[in-house]
């Protein structure tokens, strides 16, 4: 059998922690959830089973060529009938064992998939109920917390007098603690809990307003989806914007440099490597064209957040766009990408491949869902896009690190079962770097995962790479870079 050996765990969730090179694949219209190597082994066994069936038919044709077949009881060592019979038995055993092993692997992957979906559903239900219950008792908790907070504040101030620390030292203290505990934010439990917490905010709000829980649940993430992460983000904007924070502005877009030649990407590694780095003042969008005008195909690469200030800056890839994008309220980055695509010459009917990291992946998903352009493929890396349903029939791959908290900000996954999800725990066995925040979210980490995906024999990953070549062709094209800038506030 082919493929990398499965290390650590044959399917996720086993008793032993996996290697940092393990890829866990799910979705894509399938109920299977397993490592890429296990799924590749199952596909190889199915191929071997089909080959055995084909050889059985060929042997039947060979047998029919004997015009005077010798009956079985009279076979001798030189009779063709005995040779064909022996070959048939051996090939039948190969086919039977290959099929049985493939069935066992698929059954294990399906069993884990059912268990994972049940756990996600029950965990989500529990989280939603807990959020609703907290919302119901929130007024009483606030009243009860006032004396405790006052006492705690007095104690904190007195301890500061004794130790000589100042209130302004709190951020530095928190930073030191995170430096001393690098796994505090990279433990996979933290993103999983955060995903539930983000999805439960609307339930807590429903509890405060005394909306019955069955109604809240029916309208929420696991119901019709009218309430959820999107409405929670809209609530954050409603509170912040009167304070002058998270405000949207107009954007202008300009080309950075002239067009340059580019070769078509051949896999996930190429796609991830061409996503613009999140650098303040740099280009945020890269557009590639393959083929002549009128029959061109395009790849649009969208970078991640470059500015984390909640105030208005000149950078559209900022915290304001992050929240506005989740709220689906016309983020500056979304509008900038639309304008860049139009300026680059993308026509509405042209096939487009959307690629993005972090906020760029969320924008790419929303562009695909909007129908503004003819998106035919999409690949996102570390994007909080779980609630964005892309159109059916799209080749869609979402890459998420299980120790990255940013994809969890998209909440519990939506109802989009056609999207192929590839997960990897970057620091399962590797030490966590202490010199940068959220190392599992770094574009460099996702580029490494993309290279592992290219090396994977998993059939659906191979199919995506093959479809990419079909859409773009093999001839060189051209590339242009674009930068969006926020307009100054009046």
UniProtKB/TrEMBL annotation:
Q: Which SUPFAM superfamilies match?
A: alpha/beta-Hydrolases
Q: Where is this region: Disordered?
A: 1-24
List the biased-composition ranges (Low complexity): 1-10
Q: State the protein's name.
A: Alpha/beta hydrolase
User: Which classification does the entry list for the species?
Assistant: Bacteria, Bacillati, Actinomycetota, Actinomycetes, Micrococcales
